[in-house]
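Entry:
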Amino acid sequence: MSLKRILPKEHGTWAMLLVPWAIGCGVARRLTGPDLLLLAAMLAFFLAHNQLLTWLRLRLVAASDSGTLGRARGLFLILAGAGGVAFLPLLALSGPTALLALGGIAGALVAVSLYLVYRRRDHGLAGQILAPAGLALSAPAAYSVARGALDRTAVALWALNVLFFLGAVLYVRLKIDALKRAPSLVAPTAKLRFAAPTLGIDLAILVAVLITLGFGSLSPWALLAFVPTTAQTLVGAARLDRPARLKRVGILATAHSIVFALLVVWLA
């Protein structure tokens, strides 16, 4: 079985799933069997979701091969079953209330993602915002498994991760959009006008982070975890006339997400 059939093409989604889980465990100061069981279940469901989207995309193409459709459906069932095998004992070990509540939210977001694929809008801004909103649920899930309750800190950790990855998504979009207009983005005023919406949202994100930290009774020093990405956006806005190497942007985004996780766990 080829890994290409199982792994999602959007490599950034791995960070959106794993970094929040690591932060949830780190802030709770615990990593035991149930936490690893949660990770196994999330990975299986994550890969199953990818196969479900693949199956739907193939169904929407008139000339789709029945064999390819069958493989996608089969992989979805296998992976979803594997996720269930890991998830059911986790419910017994950690208590069902918090995990079932988060699972219900995740299920609703899966339905939205299917709708976006059906309407062929999954690669637009709505789909890119939906990814961090759904995958960052791994943070409150990990925290609640460790602490045994879905409290305000768990909700705050989800919001912090959504805000961080939302900023990362918007930065990548800014650099991609700038590729088409690089020759006209030489003057500082042109760069500022082009980057103004992204810079404005980044400022709003920082304000939202401060509010979130207060809501979750976390240290305001955790705001420093957003400094590297904010600096990257400012530098990137000043260099919009220079074509971005998307592979380099992706590598930096992964590095920033690791730094973000370490800083949040240390400072929050």
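The radius of gyration is 20 Å.
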